[in-house]
Specification:
Helix content: 25-40%
Strand content: 25-35%
Number of strands: 23
Radius of gyration: 21 Å
Oligomer: single chain
Shape: globular
Number of helices: 8
CATH class: Alpha Beta
Largest sheet: 13 strands, mixed
Distance between the termini: 38 Å
CATH topology: Anthranilate synthase
């Protein structure tokens, strides 16, 4: 769709009673959700859907978002993050991907932030202003469907071989210092089954992560690509990880070993540098954590750092997303060289895995995560999940394979 074809939208927000249970309002087969720590939004229906592809897919979306805002009539007395006009989005990792990137403006958005709950109704300007009521909860959640995942194009043996190849490339290159390699697993989910128990499992098991569902992409990501509030942008960089310990002492030792590992610290620093460099292209007063901290998830410890800055006045959150993707944590370093090398080494299309997923709103606020710990559910029921690891000179193929198993666990548990 070109800019000239974009419709004029009308969005009306009003406050409602406290909204705390999003799962019950989701549709069975096409749920749209963004949720963390008891806050977020769900979307019902579609007022507008725009697809993108190619190298300019995110900048094209930023252009269209500007046009939509200029032409929209927005009634928003609350002015909270997520009120007013909102578009949810998910973008493919690679410009060569066969998977569409998409922006979706739901017909109805129900959200909660800072103790305030609201509903927003969206319609095209040439549609009648019909009375809009709060949607009712959907039918009771369907029974859980347990499915089994099998290796995909990148089998475990193939993964170790590819890691060894990547190590040789890094050793012989004057530029490459890190490559992030992923592997895929596949399953089939009955097309008439209920996806909401899967989403609920992720939300309950990983409350500190962004639980998301949009256009069949489902996941719980711990990595913030960029969040914008009041003109201030922030990213959380994750690179370097290890398994949780079996008991309290073992867990503490695992965190200490991670935080003192030269390999993991070097990998993490490369990722932080690439994010801070990208920030300087769209923000002022850029800062980054002096030292990483250990982020505890149910199955992993991650090294994490924060990078922040103030958006320039001519920049939208989607422009920031375009500048930050792909991060060094999911591509490597230098990130563009690494992304091109990944295309040669991985025997599959990543689709939207490790691409940006999130939302942007008319208030200027936005929340975008990196779509890791995720799976794509196709309309025919085919499911693909991925997990990747950063390959640096000290990497060992067997250790990297074991790490992918840990990173696949959230999705495998939710579906299985």
């Amino acid at each position: 769709m070109t800019t000239k074809e974009l419709p004029h939208l009308v969005a009306v927000t009003e406050q409602i009673d406290d909204f705390t249970n999003p799962i019950g309002y989701l549709t069975r087969s096409h749920p749209t959700l963004w949720w963390r720590r008891g806050e977020g939004m769900i979307g019902i229906g579609e007022a507008l859907r725009i697809t993108y592809s190619g190298a300019q897919r995110i900048t094209d979306a930023a252009r269209d978002w500007r046009t939509l805002l200029v032409n929209a009539a927005i009634v928003d007395p609350l002015r909270k993050p997520g009120t007013g006009l909102v578009a949810f989005g998910t973008f493919a990792f690679s410009p060569l991907s066969a998977k569409d990137s998409v922006l979706v403006v739901p017909r109805t958005i129900i959200g909660r932030h800072g103790g305030t709950s609201w509903i927003t109704h969206v319609r095209l300007s040439n549609e009648p202003d019909a009375a809009a009521n709060r949607p009712q909860k959907s039918e009771q959640l369907g029974s859980e469907v347990r499915i089994h995942f099998s290796p995909g194009a990148m089998t475990p043996d193939k993964y170790e071989e590819t890691v060894a190849t990547a190590l040789k490339l890094i050793d012989s290159s004057s530029r490459l210092s890190k490559l992030v390699l992923a592997r895929d697993v596949h399953a089939h989910f009955p097309s008439d089954a209920d996806l909401r128990p899967v989403i609920q499992s992720l939300a309950l098991s990983y409350p500190e992560c962004w639980t998301f569902s949009l256009d069949g992409l489902i996941g719980a990501s711990p990595e913030t690509l960029v969040a914008v509030s009041g003109g201030v942008a922030a990213s959380r960089v994750l690179a370097g990880s290890t398994a949780r310990g079996q008991d309290k002492d073992g867990d503490e030792n695992a965190a200490i070993m991670l935080a003192s590992s030269h390999k993991e610290l070097d990998e993490h620093e490369l990722a932080v540098q690439t994010v801070a460099e990208a920030f300087r292209s769209f923000a002022t007063d850029v800062t980054a954590s002096d030292f990483p901290f250990a982020l505890k998830l149910p199955n992993l410890w991650h090294l994490a750092s924060e990078v922040g800055g103030r958006l320039r006045e001519d920049i939208t959150p989607l422009d920031a997303v375009a500048a930050l993707h792909p991060t060094g944590a999911v591509a490597g370093s230098p990130r563009q060289d690494a992304a091109e090398t990944i295309e040669q080494l991985e025997p599959f299309d990543r689709g939207r895995y490790s691409g940006p997923v999130g939302w942007v709103g008319s208030t200027g606020d936005a929340e975008w995560a990196v779509a890791i710990r995720s799976a794509q559910v196709e309309p025919n029921g085919d499911v693909t999940a991925w997990a990747g690891c950063g390959i640096v000179p000290e990497s060992l193929p067997g250790h990297e394979l074991a790490e992918t198993k840990l990173k696949l666990r959230p999705i495998l548990d939710a579906f299985g």
